[in-house]
């Protein structure tokens, strides 16, 4: 079956704005509901957030969700009802498993610097698991794909996921650098900032995404300093592992 690609431009995303938050949603989220845009593969949330200094998300609940946070600039402080506390900054991978239920807050404690991060959600294989938290410093991210999070058996990653069909990869490219995306039944390529050309698809810039189905490995080549986040998925919601 030939690969199917769907480009989602930054300008097509719904946006939530408040005095302290700008949040751009790749999928239906909160008040922004589109019945034909609820997920791709196993990914149900891909929010690109900028939080102003001395502000953030007050304590709120989550349940039965694997939540991965990747900071691009600034520092985000996490606290939750299970007693976990983490400071998340560029190069540090973080995952919260909401499981049977958890409360948490996410704050920008800086007096001067906004924090820019991408938060991504996948549904776990099993509901009602014990809530959990994991973070791991990766350090320098360069012109090779680094596996940030994975639940795929036998796959090494900085942090684990309670989903056997999903893995998240990241790279930070300079002009003319290139990487090859994994081959997978479902792939979500997101460019939070930068400019790349995806083989067989075309150019992607700040905030653009591509949803690929039944894809072989495609090369991405940067024409500007670029951050890449790529979800490799071997199942879809309600489906079987492929």
TrEMBL record:
Cofactor needs: Fe cation
Claim: Repressor is one of the keywords in the record: no
Pfam families: Pirin (PF02678), Pirin_C_2 (PF17954)
Chain sites annotated for binding Fe cation: 60, 62, 104, 106
Top-level taxon of origin: Bacteria
Keyword Metal-binding annotated: yes
Protein's name in the database: Pirin-like protein
Organism: Mycobacterium triplex
